[in-house]
Amino acid sequence: MDRAEKGAFITAVAFMGVFFALIVYAAKGLNIDVPTCITDVKPFTQGQVIQHAPDRYEIHYLAKMWYFEPANVEVPVGSTVDIYLTSADVIHGFQIDGTNVNLMAIPGTVAYARVKFDKPGVYHIVCHEYCGIGHQDMATKIIVKAGEQQ
Amino acid sequence: MRVEGSVKTVILGEIIFPIVLLIFGIYHGFMQVLYRAGIIKDMSFLGIEYYQGLTLHGVINVIVFTTMIIVAFGNAVFLYYLKKPLRPAVQWVSFLLMVVGTLMAAWAMFAGKANVLYTFYYPLIAHPAFYIGAALLLVGSVIPLFFDWAPNYIAWRKEHPGEKVPLAVFGMLVNHIMWVIMLVPVVIEVVFQLIPVSLGLISETNPSLSRTLFWAFGHPVVYFWLLPAYVMLYTILPKIVTGEGKLYSDSAARFVFLLFVLFSFPVGLHHQYTEPGITNSYKLIHAFFTLGVAVPSLITAFTVAASLEYSIKSKYPEVRNSLFYWWTKIPYISLEGDKWLVSYFMAGLFLFLVGGITGIVNASYNVNLVVHNTSFVPGHFHTTVGGLVTLSFLGISLYMVSKLMGKDIKFKGLAVIAPWLWWQGMLIFEYAMSVAGIHGFPRRTNTGISYLNPDSPLYRPEWVGYAELSVFAGFIIVLGFVFWAISFFGTIFSPKVRESTIEFPTAPALHDEKAPALNRLTPWFIVSVLLFVLSYVPAIYDVTKRGVFFDSPGYNDKNPTPITKPQSAKEDQRNTAEAK
């Protein structure tokens, strides 16, 4: 191995090492993590919105060919929302635009993410995993309202 | 070397058959951008439905075209470098299996019975002919390895003790053994999950397991497409760039192939970051290895650049002391001899650079949350498999056809321009798709009748500009392909001027150290399989045992009721299971 080659090799490995270290820091240090294995939540058969406190919500999303249940949810700005997602038939996708929430709905499993809505607006959700002929119409939204108390 | 008889016919068939199909694949690629931009606001066009076209585009371009061209190139490489005849019987069996399999799958797709996309996960179910056809294609593609290449390689080793096997043979051999290993999980998925459900033999199976098995194959397969391109970059490119160039380092090239053997397999979970059912630490391990697999690509970048620099500087003394000026001496557009091939490799390399960077984004665990399943992802892989891989395969196909048929390349000017058009189109396409992806634009979606149709309640105007830009890009890409196709078919239909030969320009190595560890394949493959098994056993355990995972019935793409079992029966079964 000549010197230039050795240098290139070490640089390549170092680069990837730094990238990986940053990922681990983001996941463990900043808590920006991906959905994990949930072993204790049974897949539900109905979508619903549960309000625990004025700014604490829990939404159970059921993805079906070809809609999300519940449709259009409204929450006040500053709310923290726990999102649970499952599928009643095939595999669907679920991304809340403008956030880091990006999940897969797989039959028999429940995906989970927590998101805090700090800005008012309409947050679109589209299915991004092909799920049959009506796939392109499968969308819903979360409307974050600027509350009077703010 | 001269090549006649039926082996020549087989190799030509393995090139021309998939390229005829590729015309459909590219047509449906172009239709995709039209649908997605809302230029076609409909479910179907000319009798082909959107998702049907998407399936055809994916399956033809990345399974049929790549697999058959790789087998053709591998056959030619083994024939030319080892100087040992291939067995016609083996070659015909392999070729016919691939053709029959492809036609079966093609029938299912064209009949609209297999709209499951290239990523055929359970519970969406296609017609059995689709799965059985795909299986035959794959079986056909591994036959030459077992009955032609491996015996010839072993015989060559015996006759040339202590010698290094030619680099191209080494690369293609490594690549195909990798292929056999990665087929194991997808064969398990197809044989034990998809075919039985599709035939109605079983009514339910585990969707999470199906996805895990699919991606255990679905990412390594990209290295199966990539390594033949690397073989060409190492052996052909340095030679033709000046006519007498050298490969910078032979050991580095072999080391790269072996690193792919190690790192190709423990990477599949990076496609499954956003799904529940798999513990995060295993996802993180796969993130580590996915970044690791970037290392051999970075070494390749160095070796290819160093080979080009060395070759050009030794030919042109006036640029010997320049840091960058030697770049201008690369024959980007040249009609002289075989130099037209340089444009395919250089355009491919420029695209691959972008593909590598966006690939690291996809692999980066939590960063992936921003781009998962958005158009960022197709943006990425159109610069890798749609970039370096396709361009080098198109280039080598034209080259092999002209040699094997003894014909001069017709419309060489078009053949030289084609990769540069393709390159520019792909760069614009990648830009449009990536940026749109960051704004949430989904992949695999007929956006023309929903999000990008002003009449739809789902209209999302912020995506329109990117989608329109991708139409422009698609047009340039198709133009590039048309230029190439004119040259390719022009060559085929021109009169024969030479005798049929097979030969590859081959660059000798500048640094050619003896590195015995790099010439023993077996230990590397054993470690690789171990790593594969170790990295997947916990994930498989997770998706089958650890959580509350159900088997679910199969569905077709047209109807939300299960095709294999009524929903109520499933509920009953689940209730009895809980009661126990």
UniProtKB/TrEMBL annotation, chain A:
Determine the domain of life of the protein's source: Bacteria
**The keyword Ligase is annotated on this UniProt entry:** no
Principal localisation: other
Q: Which InterPro entries match?
A: Ba3_CcO_II_C (IPR034214), CcO_II-like_C (IPR002429), Copper_CuA (IPR001505), Cupredoxin (IPR008972), NosZ/Cyto_c_oxidase_sub2 (IPR051403)
Recorded hits in PROSITE patterns, A to Z, give: COX2, COX2_CUA
Q: Where in the cell is it found?
A: Cell envelope
What residues form the membrane-spanning segments? 7-27
- Keyword terms: Copper, Membrane, Metal-binding, Transmembrane, Transmembrane helix
List the GO molecular function terms. Answer: copper ion binding; cytochrome-c oxidase activity
Outline the extent of the Cytochrome oxidase subunit II copper A binding domain.
54-150
This entry carries the following GO cellular component terms, namely: cell envelope; membrane
Question: What is the protein's given name?
Answer: Cytochrome C oxidase subunit II
UniProtKB/TrEMBL annotation, chain B:
Q: Which residues cross the membrane?
A: 12-35, 55-82, 89-110, 130-147, 167-192, 212-234, 255-273, 285-308, 341-361, 381-401, 413-433, 469-493, 521-541
Any matching Pfam family: COX1
The places in or outside the cell where this protein is found are: Membrane
Q: What name appears for this protein in its UniProt entry?
A: Cytochrome C oxidase subunit I
* Similarity annotation: Belongs to the heme-copper respiratory oxidase family.
Naturally occurring in which organism (per UniProt) = Thermocrinis ruber
What does the entry list under GO cellular component? membrane
Give the membrane topology: Multi-pass membrane protein
**Keywords of this entry:** Electron transport, Heme, Iron, Membrane, Metal-binding, Respiratory chain, Transmembrane, Transmembrane helix, Transport
**Gene Ontology MF, one:** cytochrome-c oxidase activity
Region entry Disordered, spans: 555-580
From start to end residue, where is composition biased (Basic and acidic residues)? 568-580
Q: What is its main location?
A: membrane
> Which InterPro entries does the UniProt record give?
Cyt_c_oxase-like_su1_dom, Cyt_c_oxase-like_su1_sf, Cyt_C_Oxase_1, Cyt_c_Oxase_su1_BS
Bias (Polar residues) occurs at 558-567
- The question of whether Kinase is a record keyword is answered with no
A biological process (GO) annotation for this entry? aerobic respiration
